[in-house]
Amino acid sequence: MSGYDRALSVFSPDGHVFQVEYALEAVKRGTCAVAVKGNGIVVLGCEKRSAMKLQDTRITPSKIGMVDNHVCLAFAGLNADARILIDKARLEAQSHRLTVEDPVSIEYITKYVAGVQQRYTQSGGVRPFGISTLIVGFDPGSEEARLYQTEPSGIYSAWKANAIGRSSKTVREFLERNHKDGLDRTGTIELAIKSLLEVVQTGAKNIEIAIMAPGKNVEMLPAEDIEKTVEKINTEKDQEANTRRGARGGAAAAAGQGAGAPSAQGAEQVLASRPAGEGSGAPPELQSEGISTWHWSMPQYGSSIMELHEEIQGLQFAPELEPSYNTPAYGYETLT
């Protein structure tokens, strides 16, 4: 790489800053985080790592942090980097409140967080933050939810629903298929949990949900409620699967009835009833010679060449149809 992958302030010949791209890889290795906007509500959902047996979960840092009373942030990537960035955002929110005597807007604090991340991509002696964030909340006096994403490069963007972290592409595609404008509280929560279940295999115990509404403090959804929602979702999935299996079974049965049962005719009758050249096995030339059936009821593989020769003595073959005597597996029977 000639140092391009180590130097933060040096571009590679093809226009890449590799340290920033490596920071994005750190984000992809982090646990998944999801945010969904609804009608007067916004929901943050995170995948929690399983706690060790002796770990005290009460003081384990959460993937969801409060920046101000009306601003909430979830992240994916390096936890230590997130702690520093959240502290900087909180300090800026309080400084803004003291200076202008108004709480920050969601877009303002998003720009600040993205600006900090960008400054760490062009300075010597530092490295980029290895996190992406989802910043949600309600502006003062507004009932419209806001949702923004920031990346290690300093880019920020607004969304209706989004996912970051491990398998974020899969979750984002699920959200694109299922998100609708104007979702109510229940629908928004269920969509957030459903999207997390696309990547979380251990169920409710590894899911964390935060709910924000205008003029209210953030609400952490109890584990019991998450468990009930997960059970409801799993029941619906089972019912849909059973319905699909029933529909496929009915279609297969209808196709079988339409085809009808085969006739219990003997093989000789079936072959005799077929026209020449259409499955009877008899070439037209042999049909004209009075041979009604040409079939492959061969002698055993142990038959000798002489036995085979005797079997075909009575047949009048066209030259181009004369069989090879070197293939004892084939025999012919004359029925005239």
Automatic annotation (TrEMBL):
Q: Can you say where in the cell this protein is located?
A: Cytoplasm; Nucleus
Q: Which PROSITE patterns match?
A: PROTEASOME_ALPHA_1 (PS00388), PROTEASOME_ALPHA_2 (PS51475), PROTEASOME_BETA_1 (PS00854)
Q: Where is the signal peptide?
A: none
Record bears the keyword Nucleus:
yes
Region entry Disordered, spans: 233-288
Keyword Nucleus on this protein? yes
Q: Which GO terms describe its biological process?
A: ubiquitin-dependent protein catabolic process
SMART domains (alphabetical): Proteasome_A_N
A Pfam family hit: Proteasome
What superkingdom does the record give? Eukaryota
Compositional bias of kind Low complexity? 250-267
Q: Which family does it belong to?
A: Belongs to the peptidase T1A family.
Which PANTHER family does the entry mention? PROTEASOME SUBUNIT ALPHA/BETA (PTHR11599)
> What NCBIfam families does the annotation carry?
PRK03996.1 (NF003075)
Q: State what protein this is by name.
A: Proteasome alpha-type subunits domain-containing protein
Species of origin reads: Hortaea werneckii
